[in-house]
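Hi U.,

Before I forget, here's the chain from the pilot set. I'm dumping it here mostly so it's searchable later in email.
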Amino acid sequence: MLLRLFPWPVFLLAYSEFTVLPSPHNVKMDAVNTQYIMRWDWNHSLANHNVTFTAQYTFSNQRFDEGSYSGKCIRITEERCDFSRELDLYVGSYILRVRAEGRGQMSNWSCLKFVPDEDAALGPPSHVALDPGDAMVTVSFRKPMKEQDHTMRSMLDSMSFSLQYWEKHPPSKKQENVFDTEERTLFFLKPWTEYCMQVSAFIKLSNKTSPYTPQQCVRTLGKRHPPVWQVLLALLCCVTLMTVPICRHYKKRKSIVSKYTFPSSILHNTQDQMFLLLPREESCVATAVVAVQVEQTSQGEQQQVKGQRDVEAEQDSGSSSIQRGQGSSSHDSGIYSGEDSGKRSVGSTTTSQPEDTLRKKIDPFSKLL
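Structure:
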């Protein structure tokens, strides 16, 4: 009876309203750098058949034009859709929507507005590498990446980086270093100490900060002490280098000393040994000898001249006496001849005395020589 009271078209309309599929809920966008993945939730217990999903996008200013929507994910079973390659304008504004479908039934659209420049998070740097040195560590990395392995630098020119580092044992307070390049060297660290580090990126203009990279630890190096044998070898070389000049100086001094002679007065006087040694004065000795010889010779010549004068005077006196008395006896002549001969012998003796004196004066020099 009731079927007769309600027409069939009204019954089918009421049944379709009560059996319509529920719309996806908790729609959100997981956007990091330029990787955009839309996610949603749907309760599969509400349907006794398989349900698929369709997701579309368009620009915000065309949201009311049904023909402007483009389908990216059509009848997919996963509750996610990747729009990374479609949303290529980082500063653009988009409308994303998704609905459930199954057995000719479709749910209403669940919409989401998305602006990458405002909503996308900034990812941490990648490929962080640590290069330890002597009390220093060089940190190098790559900038946050966008889809298709392109850096975000072309879109975010004001990107900077923050480096945190600390001693691992014992744990110390974190120190921060801010810079704008992809490489940074930390100087004046402790040698042979393990440091841990992590890096993050940030943009001041858009107030975006990436999470830090996982911490990485590295031990610094230091100057090692040389082995004992190297120290001994270096010491031996130093001693050798110091000994060679000393030996040369000693040999040179010994050769110089052997060339010089010393008077006995200097050899026995220890104070005179402090003075420099003078070479043998052979020319001075010869000069002294010649001077003595000349002086003694002059004295001998004077005595000889004097003797000759005496002889001449005697001869003159003899000749005068002969003239006075030519008849003198042979005895007188003998006396005169004897006196003459005596005087000559005296003259010869006088002449021989300078030679003896010269020899006596030369003897001290011969001793020195």
